[in-house]
# Entry
Amino acid sequence: MATTITAADVKKLRDATGAGMMECKNALSEANGDFEEANTILRKRGLASAAKKAGRTANEGLIAHKVAADHSWGILAEVNCESDFVARTPDFIQLMDQVVAEIEKAGDAANDAWLKDPQGPVIRHVAPVIAKLGENMGVSRFVRYAGGGYVGQYVHLGGKIAVMVDFAGVTPAVASREEFAALVKEIAMQVAAASPQYATREQVPADLLDKEKTIYRAQMENSGKPASVLEKIIEGKLGSFYKQTVLPDQDSIRDTTGKTSVKDVLAAANKALGAAVSVTRFARLKVGEAAP
# Structure
């Protein structure tokens, strides 16, 4: 005869373990109502301690990363824990590999809802490691590029910062050149160091540009300058805005004189390569940025 599992039984097990209601109910059913056996079942599955630790801050961790051998796709994923010590353990490193493998396997189906799904593959990998290492953990975000161009990656500070850049106009002949490999590294390092927000001026939202112009006009409303002069000043200020936020407009990090822009770096590389390589998009993940 099947044992009746009451709501009070489920609540008692949930309060003791922190596991979800359905997990507690299923464990009690499997254990025929035996509270201690159900607790053991949850612990074996890594669920008992995982939820108990869920409220603790996990701002440390590393950026997991993988790029295809032919550079046709790439993945970055921020895997978090509570301490840098745990982030360097073999179990955590293995978890990073598992997370990236699941994202690769899911392909286009991988999105934020998929990532946070309590019954999803990523959570199922995370929970047992929480139980084993005793820290709250999670995968706060990921970026996957595929089906575009040539994907390059750069990892800084041992995995605390990682960059992924998608290049267009890269033929197999260009991809095999040392000059191109050097360009990929330089552009990715630029993104890591200078934190641009857009790959082109065209990607800057129109409402953001309007907001900047409004601010500039307000700054000069009592200047007494003619409207034509004010517009030229505004365009000049927009140039400074682009220089801060748009990758090709930024000063190259390799030229401390400020005379060489990233646009110049790309032009010189294309001349050497006999190509028309451009940056279409990029991502920069830094551990802890996504924390609430």
